[in-house]
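Propose amino acids for all 608 sites.
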C-alpha cells in the first residue's frame, strides 16, 4: 500500500491492462495444455441445419444447390486432418423405388426425396393422378426436402444436403451392402440418368468432400415402412445427425379446412401424443428450434388422412428418440396478393450414432396403425365425442365386411341404430299423446297466469299446477324429446368418424363420389330436409303454441341449409336421410296402432 500523500503509479487503466494480459495468458495456456482436443463442437449449435431458416425471419433462405467451397471445411482449424478421399457423383440423377403401395423418387443431390406417391390414393384436383404427399413448390421455396440431414452446424448441413451422392453398386466398406433389387438404368430426354428400382430393394448413397462423410442406406419392402440408416463423420469422427421431413406434407387437395390447417407435427412421450399445428409453433423459439428434446417413443408429421412417422428400429429402447419441430414460411399468391404460408417441419434422431430409424409414410388406417410397433392408432382422433364416434366407426367397419360399399354400410348401420332406438320412439310417442291430451288443460292454466310477470311469485303457482297435471297423468315433460336428444350426439360422433376415417376418403355411393365431403349436387340435403319435414308432419305436436309449431316446420329447412353450406360429410347426410325414412315408416305404424286420443276438457280452476 502506498504511503500517505504518495501518488500511486498503478493507475486504474494500467491495472485493467495488466489484468487483461494475465487473463489472455491463462486462457492461452489452458487451451494449449488442458483444453479439449478436436474435433470441436461446430458453432451455431442452436439452429437446425437445413437449407432454409428454421423459422421465418429476415434472413433469406439458402439456395437449393449452393456451391461447395473447397475452403469451407478448413474453417474447422482445430480439426486434425484425416486422409479421406472426396466422393462425388459426376452428375445429378434421379432414383425411383416402387412397389404396389408407393413410388418414391430420390435425387442424388443431397440424397433426399423429391416425390412420394401413394398408389392406392388419388388426387382430388385430378382424380386420375396419384396422390403425392411431398410438396415440391414448398420444398423449392424453403430449400428443404424430406429425408434431409439436420446437423448442429448449419454450414455442414447445407453442404451435406446439396452434395452429389454416389449410388454404391459394388458394396464399399462405408455401406452395409450394394444397391439391390430389380434395377434398370434409363437415360432421360436431356441425357440425365434415371435409376428405377423394384422393391424389395436397398439403396446406399455416399458423399464426401474430404472432411465431411455421409452415408445414407435405405431398405424397402412391400409395406409402408422404410428403414433408414445414416452415418455422418467429420474428419473421421462421428457427429450427431438427424433425419427431417421438410418442405410440407400431406394432401394438398383438402379444401375444408385449408391444407395447411390440417398439417401438424407430433411426438409421443410416456404413451401420450402431443400435437403441434403451425399456430402452436409460433412459440417454439422459447425452447429454440435447435434444441433436441429426448424421451420420445415416436415423432412425425400428419394431415387429416396421412402421416410420416419416425419410429425406432425393432428392439430399441422405448423413449430413445429425440426431436426438433419448427416452421418456416413460403410466399403464396392468394386473392391477387402475396401472403406467407407456414410450413411445419420436424426432425428426429437417436442418441446413438450412426442413426437407425424406421419411417412409416402412408394412410392413417386404424387397423394398420394399431399393428405397428409402437402402435400409432392414437393418431386418429375422434374428438371430444370419442366414446361415441369410435364404437360407431368400428361398427361401421365390421358391417363393411358384409356390405362392400361404404354408403350401403352406413344405411345398414342406420337401420340397426333406429331399431335399437325404436322402443324409445314408442315411449316418446306415448308421452306425446298424453301431453297432447292434456294440452287444453295446460293452456287454460297458462292463460290464467299470463297477466303476471315472470318475476311475480304467483308464476310459481302456475308451474305447480302444471306439474300437478303431469304427475296426475304420469307424464315426463322431457320424455317426448328424449329420443331426438339422444340422436344429436350420434350425429356429431358419426360425422367426426366419417370425416377423419381414411376409409371414407373418395368412398362412392350412388352419385356421391366422396362420402367424407359434402354432396356437390345438394341432392342429399334436399331429400334429407323433405324427409325430416314429413316426419314432423306425421308426429303429434306436444304444444299448441303456434310459434313452437312454426319452429318445428322451419327446423328441416334449416338442417338442409346447414348441410349445403358447411363441410359436413355426405355420409352423415346418408345417415340422417335413412333415419328419417325409417322414422316415416315407424311413425305411420305408431299412428295406426296408437290413434290420437280425444283431448281432455280443461279443469276450471278458481280465478285468482
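Proposal:
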Amino acid at each position: 500500500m502506498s504511503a500517505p500523500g504518495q501518488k500511486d503509479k498503478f493507475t486504474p487503466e494500467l491495472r485493467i491492462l495488466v489484468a487483461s494480459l494475465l487473463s489472455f495468458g491463462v486462457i492461452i495456456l489452458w487451451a494449449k495444455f488442458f483444453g479439449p482436443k478436436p474435433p470441436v463442437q461446430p458453432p451455431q449449435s442452436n439452429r437446425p441445419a437445413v437449407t432454409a431458416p428454421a423459422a421465418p425471419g429476415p434472413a433469406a433462405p439458402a439456395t437449393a444447390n449452393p456451391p461447395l467451397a473447397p475452403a469451407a471445411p478448413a474453417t474447422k482449424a482445430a480439426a486434425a486432418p484425416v486422409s479421406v478421399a472426396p466422393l462425388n457423383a459426376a452428375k445429378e440423377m434421379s432414383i425411383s423405388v416402387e412397389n404396389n403401395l408407393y413410388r418414391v423418387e430420390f435425387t442424388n443431390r443431397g440424397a433426399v426425396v423429391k416425390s412420394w406417391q401413394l398408389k392406392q390414393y388419388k388426387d382430388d384436383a385430378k382424380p386420375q393422378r396419384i396422390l403425392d404427399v411431398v410438396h415440391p413448390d414448398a420444398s423449392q421455396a424453403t430449400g428443404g426436402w424430406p429425408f434431409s440431414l439436420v446437423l448442429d452446424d448449419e454450414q455442414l448441413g447445407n453442404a451435406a444436403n446439396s452434395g452429389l451422392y454416389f449410388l454404391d453398386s459394388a458394396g464399399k466398406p462405408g455401406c452395409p451392402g450394394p444397391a439391390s433389387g430389380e434395377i434398370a438404368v434409363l437415360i432421360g430426354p436431356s441425357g440425365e440418368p434415371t435409376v428405377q428400382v423394384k422393391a424389395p430393394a436397398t439403396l446406399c448413397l455416399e458423399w464426401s468432400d474430404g472432411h465431411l462423410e455421409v452415408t445414407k442406406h435405405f431398405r424397402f419392402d412391400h409395406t409402408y415402412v422404410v428403414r433408414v440408416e445414416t452415418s455422418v463423420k467429420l474428419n473421421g469422427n462421428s457427429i450427431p445427425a438427424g433425419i427431417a421431413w421438410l418442405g410440407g406434407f400431406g394432401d394438398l387437395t383438402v379444401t375444408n379446412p385449408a391444407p395447411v390447417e390440417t398439417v401438424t407435427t407430433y411426438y409421443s412421450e410416456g404413451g401420450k401424443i402431443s400435437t403441434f399445428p403451425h399456430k402452436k409453433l409460433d412459440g417454439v423459439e422459447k425452447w429454440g428450434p435447435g434444441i433436441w428434446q429426448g424421451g420420445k417413443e415416436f415423432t412425425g408429421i400428419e394431415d387429416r388422412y396421412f402421416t410420416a412417422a419416425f419410429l425406432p428400429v425393432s428392439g430399441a429402447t422405448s423413449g430413445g428418440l429425440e426431436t426438433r419441430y419448427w416452421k418456416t414460411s413460403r410466399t403464396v399468391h392468394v386473392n391477387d396478393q402475396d401472403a406467407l404460408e407456414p410450413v411445419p417441419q420436424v426432425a428426429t434422431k437417436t442418441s446413438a450414432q450412426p442413426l437407425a430409424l424406421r419411417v412409416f409414410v402412408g394412410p392413417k388406417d386404424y387397423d394398420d396403425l394399431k399393428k405397428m410397433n409402437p402402435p400409432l392408432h392414437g393418431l386418429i382422433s375422434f374428438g371430444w365425442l370419442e366414446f361415441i364416434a369410435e364404437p360407431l366407426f368400428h361398427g361401421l367397419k365390421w358391417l363393411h365386411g358384409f356390405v362392400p360399399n361404404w354408403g350401403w354400410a352406413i344405411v345398414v348401420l342406420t337401420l340397426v341404430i333406429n331399431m335399437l332406438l325404436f322402443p324409445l320412439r314408442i315411449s316418446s310417442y306415448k308421452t306425446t299423446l298424453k301431453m297432447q291430451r292434456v294440452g287444453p288443460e295446460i293452456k287454460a292454466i297458462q292463460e290464467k297466469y299470463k297477466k303476471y310477470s315472470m318475476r311475480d311469485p304467483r308464476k310459481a303457482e302456475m308451474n305447480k299446477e302444471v306439474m300437478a297435471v303431469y304427475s296426475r297423468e304420469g307424464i315426463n315433460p322431457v320424455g317426448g324429446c328424449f329420443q331426438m336428444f339422444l340422436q344429436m350426439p350420434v350425429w356429431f360422433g358419426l360425422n367426426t368418424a366419417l370425416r377423419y376415417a381414411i376409409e371414407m376418403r373418395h368412398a362412392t355411393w350412388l352419385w356421391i363420389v366422396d362420402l367424407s365431403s359434402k354432396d356437390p349436387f345438394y341432392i342429399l340435403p334436399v331429400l334429407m330436409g323433405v324427409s325430416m319435414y314429413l316426419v314432423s308432419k306425421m308426429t303429434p305436436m306436444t304444444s299448441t303454441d303456434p310459434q313452437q309449431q312454426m319452429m318445428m316446420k322451419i327446423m328441416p329447412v334449416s338442417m338442409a341449409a346447414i348441410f349445403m353450406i358447411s363441410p359436413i360429410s355426405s355420409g352423415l347426410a346418408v345417415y340422417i336421410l335413412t333415419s328419417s325414412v325409417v322414422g316415416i315408416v315407424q311413425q305411420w305404424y305408431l299412428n295406426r296402432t296408437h290413434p290420437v286420443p280425444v283431448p281432455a276438457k280443461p279443469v276450471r280452476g278458481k280465478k285468482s
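The first strand starts at residue 94 and ends at 98. DSSP finds 13 helices and 20 strands in the chain.
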